[in-house]
Every structure is written in structure tokens, then in C-alpha cells.
Amino acid sequence: MLEPATPLDEANRLATLRGLQILDTPPEERFDRLTRVARRLFNTPIALMSLVDEDRQWFKSRPGLDFPQTPREHSFCAHAILGEGVFVVPDAMLDDRFRDSPLVTSFPEIRFYAGCPVRAPDGSALGTLCVIDHEPRDVQEGDVDALRDLAGMAEQELRSIALATIDDLTGLANRRGFDSIAAHTIAMCRRVDRPATLLLFDLDGFKKVNDTLGHEAGDAVLRRFGKELLATFRDSDVVARRGGDEFCVLLSGATAVDIPRPMSLLLDRLAGDDENPPVLFSVGAATYDPVRHETVAHLVQE
Fold first, then answer.
1. I need a surface site. Which of 9, 34, 119, 168 has the fewest CB within 10 A?
2. Residue 60 CB contacts under 8 Å (≥ 6 apart), including other chains
3. ∠ CA(150), CA(69), CA(97), 5° rounding?
4. Residue 162 · residue 126 · CB < 8 Å
5. Is 118 within 8 Å of 41 (Cβ atoms)?
6. What is d(CA 86, CA 155) in angstroms, rounded to the nearest whole number?
7. Cα 215 from chain centroid?
């Protein structure tokens, strides 16, 4: 079988997925309702709400299927998230990409698959709303529209979840979102024996901006600072607003010696110009130590 390619935005996609804190959670009626409707509309034995993780696809909802996940390399959904529209495989046994997949040659014996990408508010394709049959079949234009509509409803549900983990003002992860993503990042660094460094930022004189120029001006400063953090650091780094004028960045695979270069870039970006005054800040750094830092909270407290 042909293993699926990796999306170009993979680091951000995974960070967004994990920030939602939805993986390995119990079933929820709001998603089960959508897969029940899909199963009934398409008259298929299986309908899934899948989420494509780093090395697996996990099913948030799975009527007609007994197991909760499969390897990503065998996943039809990992192929589906690479495109924009509905991904259809009329007969997997006649498709060179899938004919020898374990999901085709053994249970659940997939012959027909149709899946529509389900995207996070930032546009990242996190998984699919899909239907599966044991017999080959075609889809009609109306079927494609229906599956797209159901995927859109799933996106609305994800959007409501994201509201709890995303900072409305800056679009960055909030404290709750950061704690979740950072925990996964630290666990990965521990597993592969790689370093990680946390930067904590406070804006200097921010209260004065609010007091003298008003909260609208203060909000503009916060948005600008968040934007420049994202522009300065790597896609694989976790950037968040922890609250007020406090921001943080967790850099995987980095130690203190790797910090001066991005900090210099950030200072240049915030130096000010004819349209914007300079943004001043204080920053502290802590490098992850598996002995001293059992959790992300221990690293933040250092």
C-alpha cells in the first residue's frame, strides 16, 4: 500500500489537535449524532469521526467499528486530509494505494471509503467525517454535498471546543491550551532524549499603555506582540498567551545556546518604526531537565 504523505503544516496541525485536548476522550453525543446521521444517509455499516495523530488515527466516534484506532500508515483518512474536497475510493481492491492494506485484506474489509476533511478554526485538517462499506460503490453529487455538510457541523463542534483553549484576542493558545500542548511536547522530548527550553515574557510598561492610551491601544500591543512571536519562532515551537501581558514559548530541541538568535530577531521586529512605537519586554528562560522538571508546571515555576 502507499503510505500517506505528511501535510506541509504538520507541526502546527499536531499542535492544534493536541491543544484541543480531545484525543483519547470518551464518546460525546454531539459527534455520535453526526456519525449516526452519516451512517443512515449513506446506508453504510460504518461511519467515523477520525482524528489523525502523529502515528495513528483515533476515532472520536465510531458506530459500526469495535476498535478505537489504527496505525496512521494504514489510514485512508491520512490521505483524505491532504486534499480540500471529499476523498472517495469506490473500490479499494482496485486502487493501488490501498489494495494490500490490512484494513482492506482483513477486518474491517474496507472496499468503499468517502471522507471529508474536518478542519480546526485555523484551517488545519485534523481528521475526517467518513463513511465505509464492505462493498464497492459510487457516490452521487448529492452524497458529496451531504458528507461535506456533516463535516462542517463537526467543525462547528471543534470550534466550540477551541474556544476553551484559544486566546480570543491574539489567536494564540491560552493557558489551558498551552499546558496541554506543552505536556505532549515535553513527553516527546523525554522519549527521544532531546532538550527543550521555555521562554516566559512580560511586557514592560503595559499597564501605563492601558492607563494613558486606553484598552484598545493595549489590545493592539498584545496582538502585535503575539504576531511577532509567531513570526520569529518555528512552527514546531509552542507559542501562547498565558494571561494579561504574559506570553510564553516552548522550544523543542533547543537549549540556552539556541536562544540568542531568535531573541535578536524578536527585538528587531519590535524595535518600532514610523507607524508603531517599540514594544519592550522582559524575558526569562528555563531549560527542561527530566530530573528537576517532572511536569510543565515545574518548568514554568523555575
1. 168
2. 22, 25, 27, 28, 31, 49, 50, 51, 127
3. 80
4. no
5. no
6. 15
7. 31
The SS3 call for residue 130 is: strand
pTM of the model: 0.65
CA angle 284/288/294 to nearest 5° reads: 120
Rounded to an integer, what distance in angstroms lies between the CA atom of residue 114 and that of residue 70? 17
CA 235 to CA 28: how far, in whole Å? 31
Phi and psi at 51, nearest 5°, equal -130, 125
Classify residue 135 as exposed, middle or buried by CB count within 10 Å of its CB (0-12, 13-18, 19+): exposed
DSSP characters for 70-93?
EEGGG-SHHHHTTSSS-EEES-GG
Whose CA is closest to 123, among 12, 252, 242? 12
Helices (H), ranges, the chain: 10-19, 29-42, 77-80, 102-105, 141-162, 175-192, 206-213, 215-232, 260-269, 296-301
Q: Which residue has the cell 471543534?
A: 158
Residue by residue, pLDDT tens for the chain (302 residues) are 789 999 998 988 998 898 888 999 999 999 999 999 999 999 999 999 999 999 999 999 999 999 999 999 999 999 999 998 999 999 999 999 999 999 999 999 999 999 999 999 889 999 999 999 999 999 887 889 999 999 999 999 998 888 778 888 998 889 888 887 888 788 878 877 888 999 999 999 998 888 888 889 899 999 999 999 999 998 778 899 999 999 999 998 889 899 999 999 999 999 977 778 889 999 999 998 877 877 778 888 87
Distances (CA, A) of 143 to 43, 99, 138, 186, 197: 11, 24, 10, 43, 49
